[in-house]
Amino acid sequence: MNELPDKHHVRGGYDGWRSGTAMAALLFCGIALSACQTGPTGELTTIDVAQGSSENISSLSAVVQRNPSDPEAYNVRGSAYGRGGKYRDALKDFDTAIRLRPDFYQAYSNRALIHRFLGDQASALADYNRSIQINPSYDAAYIGRGNLYRKAGRTQDAFNDFQKAIQLDTTDPRAYHNRGLIYQSQGQHNYAIEDFSTAISLSPDSEEPYNGRGLSYLATNDEDNAFADFNMAIKLNERVAESWANQALIYERRGDKARAAKSYARAAQLDPNYKVATDGLARTRT
After folding, report:
1. Best CA proximity match to 111, nearest among 158, 147, 78
2. What angle, rounded to 10 degrees, do the helices at 241-253 and 257-270 form?
3. What is the pLDDT along the chain (286 residues), one digit of tens a residue?
4. Helices (H), the chain
5. Are 7 and 238 in contact (CB under 8 A)?
6. By its UniProt entry, which SMART domains does this protein fall under (predicted)?
7. What is the distance between the alpha carbons of residues 78 and 212, in angstroms, rounded to a whole number?
């Protein structure tokens, strides 16, 4: 079944909190990492431009026209609309898919994500619950609902849903990454490192778990491994401000203000509103 991946922003992969550089900066200033909190940001790492392109939508619309009673056709096109940021069109297609097949649990989960993007958290929760009620073994719905819970501050409920997805032998890296973020926020960095490592093994081309693991390495004073992870994050994606700020933090800890300032400057260039980067640049600029 075609599913809409739980992502739509360039930053904040795996529906994660901002990579956590704010926590690292506080750690650098002498505040315990476990006491720090970050706020949720984007749900996704990248927009799938190809699948949301007008050409692909046109092709999928032709399939819908040939099969107007096929719920799968609407689910597939709805997923493409969602990937392309056309949320209202996606919502209509998932509505139609569910009307045609009331037990279409994948469409419920996909529609829940669209509700979240549109700010209707109550409808999103209802759809995730319905998806799980129809298929209690559907890992994607647990991960999506877990992200919804975490955004609402229901950390234990979020943890339980990520745990359930993992118990179902999910191969979705978001379950491990997001559980790792919860462990990290609670100061359980060895568990966090293990989860981030699993996420990396499942999705080795994403920078986000490298940033997460690097911060937990840093919290356990494993500076060398932290630095290696931040450098890998930059290698994988040079346009993520958090990665550059994390690298800058290591340089700053080592007393190399020139290199730190250069990395903070790159982070600030990528995101002028990223306070960690601008504050770091002010500290290290000579």
Report:
1. 78
2. 170
3. 556 556 432 233 355 333 444 444 444 433 233 223 332 222 333 334 455 577 789 999 999 999 999 999 999 999 999 999 999 999 999 999 999 999 999 999 999 999 999 999 999 999 999 999 999 999 999 999 999 999 999 999 999 999 999 999 999 999 999 999 999 999 999 999 999 999 999 999 999 999 999 999 999 999 999 999 999 999 999 999 999 999 999 999 999 999 999 999 999 999 999 999 999 999 999 7
4. 21-28, 54-66, 71-83, 87-100, 105-117, 121-134, 139-151, 155-167, 173-185, 189-202, 208-219, 223-236, 241-253, 257-270, 275-284
5. no
6. TPR
7. 32
Q: DSSP class of residue 11?
A: S
Q: What span, in angstroms and rounded, lies between the C-alpha atoms of 23 and 219?
A: 9
Do the Cβ atoms of 217 and 24 come closer than 8 Å? no
CB 105 within 8 A of CB 139: no
Domain chopping of the chain, boundaries? 241-285
Q: Which two tokens stand for residue 129?
A: 């619950």
Of the candidates 257, 256, 245, the residue with the CA atom closest to the CA atom of residue 284: 257
Count Cβ atoms within 10 A of the Cβ of residue 273 and give its class: 0-12 exposed, 13-18 middle, 19 or more buried.
Answer: exposed
On the CB side of 193, CA atoms within 13 Å amount to: 16
For residue 5, give both structure tokens.
């991946």
Which pTM value belongs to this model? 0.83
